Amino acid sequence: MENKQINWPEVTEVRPKVLECDVVRFQNNKEKWVAFVGLLDGNPYEIFTGVLDDEDGIALPKTVTKGYIIKSMDEEKGQKRYDFQFINRRGYKTTIEGLSERFNKEYWNYAKLISGMLRYRMPLEHAIKVVSSLEADSDNINSWKDGVARALKRYLQNTESPEELDNAEIS
User: Fold this and answer.
1) Helix, strand, coil share of the chain (percent; to 5)
2) Residue 136 falls within a domain, yes or no?
3) Strand 43-51 relative to strand 66-74: parallel, antiparallel, unpaired?
């Protein structure tokens, strides 16, 4: 039996305090949603999703497509939190604190699972396949997972246009 060496992708165990972030908007049924995709070396490393323009959600200008996800410590609660920061059109930093507190816990937990796959460098095609194969009784979750899969497909090397994203098949 031949002993083959496997070249595993490099895993960054400790999350950097600040990650670049892409902002991806999508529809979940009739609601407008947003995905914050944290990037490490240009690759998806984590994802946070939630409703846009909701009292407990995120109000974000349409022009914002990039920013940073900052891991902070909430001194009052003694817990870590994730903040989103972007530069507004006047050049000032704008920070939305506590992404985890603004999003539905069910979606937050799914996003934590997906982030775990991304952080440990599961090949993106496989992570998308897992997301796409999630089964739920709720139409809302089924619509949400399609939006998340589409958000992640934009990072596949071969896809270039939105039409290709919608039609990209993951084998």
Assistant:
1) 30, 30, 40
2) yes
3) unpaired
**CA 49, CA 13: separation in Å to the nearest integer?**
22
Which pair of structure tokens corresponds to residue 61?
């200008």
DSSP 70-86: EEEEETTTTEEEEEEEE
| Contact in structure between 100 and 47 (CB atoms under 8 Å) | no
Task: Give, as one character, the DSSP assignment of residue 52.
Answer: B
**Considering the domain boundaries, does residue 8 fall inside one?**
no
Residue 51 counted as domain residue: yes
Q: What are the pLDDT digits (tens) for 13-33?
A: 789 999 999 999 988 888 888
Answer yes or no: is 9 within a domain.
no
Quick: pLDDT tens for 73-127. Answer: 878 888 888 999 999 999 999 999 888 778 888 888 888 899 999 999 999 999 9
Q: How far apart are CA 151 and CA 168, in angstroms?
A: 12
Domain housing 147: 18-167
Query: Which residue's entry shows tokens 């990037």?
Result: 39
- DSSP letters, 109-122, are HHHHHHHHHHHTT-
Domain count of the fold of the chain? 1
